[in-house]
Amino acid sequence: MRRWTIAVGVAALGVAAGLFTLGVARDDPGYWFAGSSDAAGAALLGAGWALIGCGLASWVRRPASAFGPLLAAAGFAWFLPEWNNPAIGSALACTLGLALYASCPPRVGRAVLAYPGGRRGGRIEAAGRAVA
Questions:
Q1: DSSP-assigned letter for residue 118
Q2: Sign of CA dihedral 70, 73, 79, 85
Q3: Neighbours of 27 (CB within 10 A)
Q4: Which of 46, 58, 107, 111 lies at 20 to 30 Å from 119 by C-alpha?
Q5: How would DSSP label each residue in the chain?
Q6: pLDDT tens readout for residues 77-107
Q7: Stated pTM of the model
Q8: 3-state DSSP call for residue 69?
C-alpha cells in the first residue's frame, strides 16, 4: 500500500512539473525548443509523462529493481531543457535547467543497462560501457 501512495505522489509531482514546464515555455516561446504549437506542447508533456509513468509502473511491479526509479528520474529530467530560460523568473530554476538540461539521455541509458534486475552486469558489460 505504501508503494502505491508514493507512486501516486510522484505521478502528481510529474504532472505538476510538466505543467510548470509548459507554462514556462508558453510565457516566453522565443526560448522554447519546441516552438509555440499545441502539438509540440503535447509531445513535450507526453514524452516526459510516459517516462515517469513507465518508471513508476515498473517500480510498483519490481520494487527491488533500480530500473523504475531511474526511468522516472529520466522523465523529470526530460522537462529540464525548457528551464534554462532566462525569463523563467527564478534564478534557481534557470540554474538547474542550465546545469542539468542534458541529463535525460544518460539516465535512460543507465536505466536500459540496469534492466531487468536493476543492477549493472559484470566485466563484459562494464567493458561494453567503457567502449561506448
A1: S
A2: negative
A3: 13
A4: 46
A5: -HHHHHHHHHHHHHHHHHHHHHHHHHH-GGG-TTTT-HHHHHHHHHHHHHHHHHHHHHHHH-TT-SHHHHHHHHHHHHTGGGG--GGGS-HHHHHHHHHHTT-HHHHHHHHHHHTTTSS---HHHHHHHHH-
A6: 988 888 887 777 788 888 888 888 888 888 8
A7: 0.79
A8: helix
Q: How far apart are CA 44 and CA 72, in angstroms?
A: 15
C-beta separation of 33 from 90 below 8 A: no
User: Grid coordinates standing for 33?
Assistant: 525548443
Q: How confident is the model at residue 119 (pLDDT cuts 50, 70, 90)?
A: low
C-alpha span between 67 and 57 (Å, rounded):
10
Judge contact between 116 and 65, C-beta under 8 A. Answer: yes
Using only C-alpha atoms, the chain has a radius of gyration, in whole angstroms, of 16
